[in-house]
Amino acid sequence: MNNAIIKNVKIPSLENEVFHAVIMNGRYEKIVSAFSYHAEEMIKQEGSPNIEIIDAEGWIMLPTFTDIHTHLDKAYTYEQIPNKTGTLVEAIENYKELAGEFEVENIKKRMKKVLEQALANGTGRMRTHINVNSGPGGLKALQTACGLKAEYKNLIDLQVIAMIADPIEELKEDSSFLLSLIKNDIDGVGGAPHLSENCTEEIKILFAFAAEYQMLIDLHVDEQDDPAVRSIEEIIAQVKHYKYQRKTTVGHLCTLSAMETNEALSIIKEIVGESINIVTLPAANLCLQGRDDQKNVRRGTTRVKEFLANNACIAAASDNINDPFHPFGNADMLLTALMSAYANHLTGTEDIKKVFDMITKNPSEIFHEKVDIKIGEKADFVLLEGSSLADVLANQRPGRKVFRNGHWTSIRTVKQTVERGYNIHA
Ligand SMILES: [Zn+2]
């Protein structure tokens, strides 16, 4: 279905009107007001056998979502790896102890569950971090994810980041492990250097490796409450050294919120100046940060408003889904968007538009793919049941229709019937 007319659709980037969108050869050819003279002309084409006509009935059209930071290997392990205290420390310990026991079939089944959910929810692109280590079976989750990358191509485009869990000393002594990673279809390397005793050294090794093979680098950064933790400064230095602008992504940056404002703003300006991509992960941070605060408990997320005010490329993403780090989640970017709005006071009319940029335009830029509803661009969109962006967020309705690469890749409609044939006071 490369040719279609999507009738009666709302496109928030074109303000609050109803439109008809004509798609020819998989691209937007015309987008006109549903109340214009041209709309009448378009409707006449309904008789053409080569054009499918879809009445969107006022649903919202957005570019398909990009979930730029997930952990497919950890997802849906909460029942097998619980977290009694709910803390980050226990999550890391329990996961490290038990993760190696999962068989490939189990890993694959859990990964597919997330991908199928994300697809039905309107996600077109996803980046996953996958833990790797040089021990026996240390690459099985990575190999499984790379296999699914091929299987899901054109449904959900997947980027795989090898998240290195080995101690830095071992990486220095033996490069064969690092070289074994690039034999897989990975897009980049990652880690959580602020957790290492040799944080600076680890950052240097990761950048040297990424730069040698021209891979992306995507790090978990300063996911702590202590304002003295600021590995981001070394990361900025390495980006300058290797000229790694746009290829570097930093997630979390929680300690920026703990610092004095003037200190944080100076780091934010450097991050933006070096075109480093930022990802906020509200679900995990709301769960894990501020646990020792006795009053005015912190939300734990980074300074999203300050990044937005400085025109940063900042995205919001799911992070962990039903695992010891975060027991909830459903691979729905609307939930991530709603949490971002609450956690960062993004509830003004313009703020809500920016929240949607953080799950569409900005993360697709980080993915190095342009997705926009404009004439000439590739038609790659999700239709969402709802009357406005605020309504879509508030009600999180299940209705979604996803169109990518000239096809409907997922359609989900749920009709609710209210039965009134009884007396509620009886
Ligand atoms: Zn993460």
Task: Name a few traits of the molecule.
single chain, 426 residues, alpha/beta, Urease, subunit C, domain 1, TIM Barrel, four-stranded mixed beta sheet, 16 strands, 35% helix, globular, binds zinc ion
Helix content: 25-40%
Shape: globular
pLDDT < 50 stretches: none
Hetero ligands: zinc ion
User: Could you tell me the mean pLDDT?
Assistant: 93
Q: How many domain modules? A: 2
Number of helices: 16
Radius of gyration: 23 Å
Strand order of the largest sheet: 6-7-8-9-10-11-12-13
Say how many strands there are: 16
Can you name the CATH architecture of the largest domain? Alpha-Beta Barrel
Mind explaining what this structure looks like?
This protein is an alpha/beta fold and 426 residues long. The protein folds into 2 domains: 4-63 and 373-412, Urease, subunit C, domain 1 (Roll), CATH 2.30.40.10; 65-366, Metal-dependent hydrolases (TIM Barrel). Helix content is 35%, strand content 21%. The protein contains 16 helices and 16 strands. It has helices at 37-44, 88-98, 104-121, 140-151, 168-173, 176-181, 199-212, 232-242, 255-258, 261-273, 282-288, 304-309, 333-343, 349-357, 361-366, 389-395; strands spanning 4-10, 18-24, 27-33, 52-55, 60-63, 65-70, 123-132, 157-164, 188-191, 216-221, 248-252, 277-280, 314-316, 381-384, 400-404, 407-412. It has an 8-stranded parallel beta sheet. A 4-stranded mixed beta sheet has the order 3-2-1-4, covered by helices on one side. It has a 4-stranded antiparallel beta sheet with strand order 5-14-15-16. Strand 10 (216-221), helix 8 and strand 11 form a beta-alpha-beta unit. Helix 3 crosses helix 4, helix 7 packs parallel to helix 8 (232-242) and helix 13 packs across helix 14 (349-357). The longest helix is centred in the N-terminal third of the chain and has 18 residues, at 104-121. The protein is globular, with a radius of gyration of 23 Å. The termini are far apart. The relative contact order is 0.15. The mean pLDDT is 93. The structure holds zinc ion (ZN). Zinc ion is lined by residues 69, 71, 129, 220, 251, 319.
